[in-house]
Design a protein that fits this description.
Two copies of one chain form a homodimer. Chain A is 78% helix and 0% strand. The first copy, chain A, is mainly α. At the A-B interface, helix 6, helix 7, helix 8 and helix 9 of A face helix 6, helix 7, helix 8 and helix 9 of B. Chain A binds a DNA duplex through helix 3.
Chain lengths: 196, 196
DNA sequence: GGGGAACCGATACGATCGCATCGGAATAAC
DNA sequence: GTTATTCCGATGCGATCGTATCGGTTCCCC
């Protein structure tokens, strides 16, 4: 047996580099050479970890998807004492990727979304994350007393609204504060209707 | 005076070719050579119309933005007899670009949206369209009896929701029918609240 | 401690990109 | 018919892309 290397660790490190580059220059600005420099490895090492660039991008998408999804779940476990309604607000706020510290992820997410429109493999990866988030949201909304059908519908609406606001914020048509306020107002209307 | 050419007409024809290519392969799949072939002109002609590729893309964005915006306005003028609420539904349905015949435009729009996240010039073009659509929606919502503040908020929410649903449909996480139903349900809730 | 497999880094290659250049075709004024 | 000007289409150029290749290094196993 020869030299051994933690492949998974390296793949994650490369995925981080990919994401950083997407944030800075968009998806088409990602080149193997730049990725190698950013990840502080050689091009050859990148090629060993991922047979093709396509595979690398798919892995990076899964990586960022996991991060967002796990953080959303963390919001639930991290605040078990709060009301279900308030938890929904926190989770949606997390998914919307507003706020400066999430701006990079927002750009990455949007870049993958657009690429997925013409790339079935990326679309599948994205659907995976969406399905998880939607299920989580639906369960939480249902806990507030909404019937299952209505909860599913509201979860879908919330997910789309959050995504749309993210995009509008990224192009500067909406500030993060405005987006957050719209999200909050939508939820307030929802709880008002559910309470009656 | 030498040979004369209708530059505007040619620019539009080229913009159409750009859009067709974005629909098929995404924004990064657009090359000057392919555009020239698709528009049935030479590369030199494309270069004469647009000094740089960047300028060409900006024009194409304006072109598609105009088309969507004009169609949305057309929905208002085309149905003056209907209730304001129903008009809002039609306009939002138009903006969401659901339906097979709008799928290409949806992909183009999303591609420009993602590119705009790292390209200020494209972002400005996109904001231009968004502002127009948002203003139109706000006026229509206000006509249903909602106060100005609430109408503006609802217009912003609707625009974001429509955009988000478009993206989810494009990656196959939502069908066009589901998206339409969610949009319809959201509006139904809005009118119910406004009516009380 | 010698051998062989796994890994690395550098380089080469073919393709393709945006853009610049340039000779000639086309046309209106004289 | 000549001339001047505008446009076209082809070609060239330099850069950069993803990927393949290959000698050298490293390290586990026996």
């Amino acid at each position: 047996m020869p030299k051994q290397v933690d492949h998974e660790e390296r793949r994650r490190r490369i995925a981080e580099a990919v994401c950083a580059l997407i944030d800075a220059q968009g998806l088409e600005g990602v080149t193997l050479r730049d990725v190698a420099v950013r990840a502080e490895v050689s091009v050859g090492a990148v090629q060993r970890c991922f047979r093709t660039k396509e595979g690398m991008l798919q892995f990076a998408l899964g990586h960022i998807g996991e991060r967002v999804t796990e953080r959303a779940h963390g919001r639930v476990l991290g605040s078990p004492a709060q009301s279900a309604a308030s938890t929904v607000g926190h989770v949606v706020g997390e998914v919307a990727l507003l706020g400066d510290e999430r701006r990079a992820e927002a750009r990455i997410w949007l870049a993958f979304l657009a690429a997925a429109a013409v790339n079935p493999a990326l679309a599948a990866g994205l659907r995976n994350s969406y399905t998880g988030l939607e299920g989580l949201l639906a369960r939480l909304v249902e806990e507030t007393g909404v019937d299952a059908e209505g909860a599913r519908r509201e979860a879908r609406t919330l997910l789309a609204l959050a995504d749309g606001l993210t995009g509008h914020m990224l192009v500067g048509h909406r500030t993060a504060a405005e987006a957050e306020e719209l999200l909050h107002a939508h939820l307030a209307g929802l709880w008002a209707r559910a309470g009656e």
